[in-house]
Model the fold of this input.
Amino acid sequence: MTVLDVAGLSVRLGGNDVVNDVSFSVAPGRRLGILGESGSGKTVTALSIVDMLPDGAETRGEISFENRQLNSMSSHERRRLRGGSIAMVFQDAVAALNPVIRIGDQIADVYRRHTGATKRAAHTRAVELLGEMGIPVPAERARDYPHHFSGGMAQRALLALALAGSPRLLIADEPTSGLDTTVQAAVVDLIRGLFQGSQRALVIITHDVSVVERLCTDVVVMYAGMVMEAGPAREVLHQPANPYTQRLLGSVELGASGKPAYIPGYAPQPWALPQGCPFADRCHLVEDRCRVERPALDFDDQGHGVACHVVRL
Amino acid sequence: MSVLAVDGLRKVFSGGRARKDVVAVDDFSCEVHRHHTLALVGESGSGTTTVALLILRLLSPTAGAIRLGQEDVSQGRVPVEYRRAVQIVFQNPLGAFNPRLTIGTSLHDAFRLRDLTRKERAAEIAELLDSVGLDGTVLGRYPTQVSGGQLQRIGIARALATRPSFLVLDEPTSALDMSIRGQIVELLATTQRERGLGLLLISHDMRVVRAMADTVMVMYRGTVVEEGEAGQVLAKPSHSYTQDLLDAVGMGNGAHATPQPDPKPETSL
Done:
């Protein structure tokens, strides 16, 4: 049984192919990181799952939640799933909260909608959830408005809000990116604590390798709309096979000279995607074939997959 | 004009009727020489950005002196020579360019403090673009039509248009993709070497600090809590907050494994 199944997802936005043939699945209790840089299509992939793509987006492929196809559901059905069984948290937590409603009331509202609890019970649950998210004196802070909260606190409140509907799948889009580095670490620890040992599944969108390292069981590495590498996080991070993954991981560390290593060149713009491998222009192993033919994702029997003409597992 | 010297800088934001005044920066002093990089490290609310805005005189200090050479520019009208000499590269290049102007127009604008003919400007723009690793093809584009890394290169070129001797770098890499941050660090280092720039680097990314800084000052809630030679501070931080920052990017010795609870920011601009 899988919680989430994405098969051959492609998304066209404003005439550009921003996601190309992306497939992955998430089992209960697994934490999948979608790792990619700007323009890699990671956020659009996440938004397709919760049916929040901008108007005019054309999608192909199938997305299933607990073996039910989301594409064939009515928007009413999908709305019922969203916020309940499937919840999402966003990067800018302060903006994601309603600025004119007290934090506790926002959480209680979600809880009531999905459980039918009384107002009083919902409020109690909201305070409880805030406490579980590590917010000190939750009963008092529940009466605050979002602007009273710091970025880290707001992200905790947003997590409480997302978990109020007892989701079986949480999608988190860069939940730590806007936060100070020391606060980021605390929020990552919190999320890991919330998921470790539970059957809840997590899909976390991030550009930060250390978030994947500290939080995820599995990872999908995306570049220019395409999956470059996928598999168990430990495997992919410690034995990256795709040249892009290797050099991306390399840029996180300092080189021998003490200067940060980097990948020369820039990622292709979505309106100028090359015909072959999108990384070919920046790749040190590039061959003629890479420029004309897009490599397919090939998996070994450990579930580690790589899309590359040159490197094979 | 070889030293940018800041002495006893203080900035208090008035809280208005009902609220307390906020001391954003208290008793901050530093010297930046040409060819020298001072890194100012601290997280949101620590006062680093306020220091930058004060040095750029986009804010006026409540007290203290800012000197370039003999002249104190901390109060009143800022001399044009100071504006030319001290420029800034912003964190988010997309926010730092007017979205409705082409990159070429923005670059031409940057020359307003210098008396050049249009032709001279064009020649210098071509030179600047070349020095940041780009060519004239970007001139006709709008900021959203180039990548973040390219736009940051253009941001650096723009800052150099006035031929400054000092640059304030406010988190110059943190809005950029990991795989290209090193490109910008390298470009800044080369630019500094070639032009003998003094740099004030604001960052909380200790990797960038280690790669660029000669000296480091760590700020916490408006005051400097640690300062010293970069190698020294990074290898043996004496303040627990510095240790936390190093741990956050895996550069610490792990002595302080637990991160601090997020402090509620006391300043908001």
